[in-house]
């Protein structure tokens, strides 16, 4: 294969295009390449942003004067609920995830993300879920309980319509997309970097995205669980949040904000990553304090999970708790301050250029610092009691979110425009767009602090004259329309530049990171050959890198094997460990998302049988997806590599799938942990919690079932250990036997569930037991299925001596079943006995 | 100008009691300090962009960066947080319903409903709705609860807010230092008419407050010309509304002193000439989805008679 080196670069690119190229026409729906998927995310996010902005304009129009009859209360309540939900779930998170999906492989010197089909699946879930949610507005059935959906207002008793279901189902669907993106990005950042790109050489944007992705993995599951519980309460009458039946509406608030606060940083951190990427380029100086920044980002990630109660200071939390959460909330000022002053020092010691992206960064700084400071004010409990739920908070969060996310995002879009179009943005229209947006934004929201201090609560569809609110509201409304003009100007500028922009040369900003070593716009494979990385600033070190990459003078420059390949690297040192071969274009992600859409629509319409069928179909498609992997003829039948290159990942014990499963199980574990949290929370806090004198669970049967599960997992561990030593004798038979035992165990568990006299609609105690057992049953039933499929793959020769690593992936699932089983046993059986209930 | 901009019946910056006063002090203090911080950061940033660039060796840049990061990122926020907590925690403690040395505070129970307030004085048994009358200069413990969804009790000129949760009771300590009228409003979104859930608050000097309580303990006499209205009211409106001596409904606001209240429909309609008649006819237009059914089937004359009688309920 060494003769490829002699091929002309043009020929090489043609050959790469044959393997990596995107189909056109309707087949484009099967594209899984990260560049296309990232662009789709961003385009769709922009559309949802415009929808959300339109809703905001209607809100501001209604509030412009006292007692305006423009919009009635029903519509208004739908407008503000959807404005918040669309901006948070359908714009901010997918937009930054989309940008990261587009950029991360390019910055890391890789050809694609490690799970291309997963990013495509994430995109379709996002598109369909978002469409379901937004279509409710057209039907006049949009959610109307506010974007945090507090119970009991969102319960079936107080919101009998389908409105709340649209929110719960649509948002959960979109969250699947967010979690998929989080898993994808975290594993890709850890496992597919350029050779030699150790963690401390990684571009800061990748650091920010790594922390953000892990925050998504840990932060979203509590809300997914909360939504499932609330939907179960609404649709099946289970009791979780109803005080009369032993539930507690505050449980919802805890689950929601356990997600909701990290969410704010999930939105902010990628934007701060944009700032940390652009500033050194325009200051023409490496970022000062790289390690400080990394520590600050990690610190923010940890802190953000300890702050959620500051959204609940007015519910009557115990004093000590308030003091703790108050101090913790203020502490976020430290990592944020570190970042701001590191940026400042970079500018100070650099030779800054002042262009349109920099203008947006200045706007970011002014607005975000102001919003951060009002955030510290709000963390002070006695002040929060006064302004909580007033327009002061509305102003604060728009300062933080618009200043902290939208401004850096637009700066980033301008900066990366040459990537999307091959052209440079204009200066004049861009400046107009900035100033209109900046002035309009501050006119709207600076004044709104004052409105809030004058006592105007949020979420009121009208207000009487004579309270002093008329003038500030009018200013805010006028300002909001100015801001809308600014945003329109920016979009116009970006749209026009695709036609009239100057052609960008190589690396037009003289940037330091690898995404500028691609062609502009880049090919689907990013790099024909994969460069090694010897510093934090590869393109400053070697400005001609792009050319030598295009000439195929670096790693993996062959394509005659027909595989899509990228390096699999060590998570810490970045040294090459294996070759990751990636799946090609596939319809499976689209099909899976489509049947999931059927599940959601059936649930919305109460067609539960159809929902069940569609859920099974989803499972079938996902299993097919996992089938076309490893040594499968459609994946990588030919495992030969060039001499000196490492083996393919599917021929080792350590592929990205192992990490993907682990990360997904982490997210799953957080969901399970939230469920157990709910159990202990209600047990200790719910006003009417009434545990029965004797637990209804058959403790002995459960114990035996758990022991059986333990034995299976031990057996599976032994099998994998043996395989690692290269011993694969009777692998198939052993797998079949473990699958059969697993089936027995799952059957035992379903017997326990059926034999336990539970009344989930009458008491929260029974409802939580039922959900926990159902959760265990689902996992324990899937385990033997996965094991049986492995046995079948061994028979077909797809798993075994040649490709030994898949059983290790399935082992993680078994371990997870065992862990959650015994955690549940402790919580449901031992704990109540221990405290003498 | 600035002070005028801070005034208003619901303004947190126009405090009339110690809790609101403390919050207002906190605001002005933080506003001044954080305003300075913001100006400083923005000034440095613009200066860094505008000044003539100087040459820094990597070592110099690293040292300068470390100094800035420690000064601006660690010391400045650390100092601000310490000062904030040093002022904030004692002030916050003073707002809590802790036991008092002197006479016990006056207890008032306020229950949130979609979308009105039930108010009860447990010591005297006096009940009213959508208005809170309290004595000047005496601490008041407002005990809040909810009958349906989550509401929040908030009278900004007297103090902070407290959520009203179903199944729980919580206490907010307030005190009015001056006689006068204030306005409160539900602060937690509670459904369709969240915007029309205001609470009229009036602080009375102690003798006036005692007189008010005494008067409310007796039922309003029914003048003979209103007898027919009472008979029309009792079987229909009385199902939900209580009027002392007439009916005992509990689902809707107590009307025993509705004639003396400054507004109707929890702040929806000011009490002008003819407001009561208008409310009875148009309440579903003025406050859509409120719990009271339309009265279309009642003859106009009967509705007007009921309105006229209700106007007299001002013991």
TrEMBL record, chain A:
- Give a Pfam family name: COX1
Question: What is this enzyme's EC?
Answer: 7.1.1.9
> Is Amino-acid biosynthesis among the key words of this record?
no
Heme-copper oxidase subunit III family profile domain: from which residue to which, for each copy?
576-833
Among its keywords, does the record have Transcription regulation?
no
In the bilayer, the protein is annotated as: Multi-pass membrane protein
Gene Ontology cellular-component terms listed: plasma membrane
Q: What class of enzyme is it?
A: translocase
Q: Which InterPro entries match?
A: Cyt_c_oxase-like_su1_dom, Cyt_c_oxase-like_su1_sf, Cyt_C_Oxase_1, Cyt_c_Oxase_su1_BS, Cyt_c_oxidase-like_su3, Cyt_c_oxidase_su1_bac, Cyt_c_oxidase_su3-like_sf, Cyt_c_oxidase_su3_a-hlx
Give the UniProt subcellular location, in the record's own words: Cell membrane
Record pathway: Energy metabolism; oxidative phosphorylation
Bilayer-crossing residues are 37-59, 79-104, 124-146, 166-190, 202-224, 264-283, 290-311, 323-346, 358-381, 393-417, 429-450, 470-492, 610-627, 658-680, 700-720, 732-755, 767-792, 813-831
Which positions make up the signal peptide?
none
Q: Which UniProt keywords apply?
A: Cell membrane, Copper, Electron transport, Heme, Iron, Membrane, Metal-binding, Respiratory chain, Translocase, Transmembrane, Transmembrane helix, Transport
Superkingdom: Bacteria
Query: So what does this thing catalyse?
Result: 4 Fe(II)-[cytochrome c] + O2 + 8 H(+)(in) = 4 Fe(III)-[cytochrome c] + 2 H2O + 4 H(+)(out)
GO molecular function ontology, one term from the record: cytochrome-c oxidase activity
Every copy of the Cytochrome oxidase subunit I profile domain together lies at 26-534
Q: Which GO terms describe its biological process?
A: electron transport coupled proton transport; oxidative phosphorylation; respiratory electron transport chain
Question: Which family is it part of?
Answer: Belongs to the heme-copper respiratory oxidase family.
- Entry protein name: cytochrome-c oxidase
The source organism is Azotobacter chroococcum
UniProtKB/TrEMBL annotation, chain B:
Q: Which UniProt keywords apply?
A: Copper, Electron transport, Heme, Iron, Membrane, Metal-binding, Respiratory chain, Transmembrane, Transmembrane helix, Transport
Coiled-coil spans are none
Provide a Gene Ontology MF annotation, just one: oxidoreductase activity
How is the protein disposed in the membrane?
Answer: Multi-pass membrane protein
- Top-rank taxon of the source lineage equals Bacteria
Subcellular location per UniProt equals:
Membrane
| Residue intervals of the Cytochrome c domain | 224-314
Record's catalysed reaction(s)? 4 Fe(II)-[cytochrome c] + O2 + 8 H(+)(in) = 4 Fe(III)-[cytochrome c] + 2 H2O + 4 H(+)(out)
Q: Which family does it belong to?
A: Belongs to the cytochrome c oxidase subunit 2 family.
Known role: Subunits I and II form the functional core of the enzyme complex. Electrons originating in cytochrome c are transferred via heme a and Cu(A) to the binuclear center formed by heme a3 and Cu(B).
Query: Which stretches make up the Cytochrome oxidase subunit II copper A binding domain?
Result: 103-215
Membrane-spanning residues: 25-47, 68-93
- What is the name attached to this protein's record? Cytochrome aa3 subunit 2
GO BP terms, alphabetized? ATP synthesis coupled electron transport
Q: Which GO terms describe its cellular component?
A: membrane
List, alphabetically, the Gene3D superfamilies matched: Cupredoxins - blue copper proteins
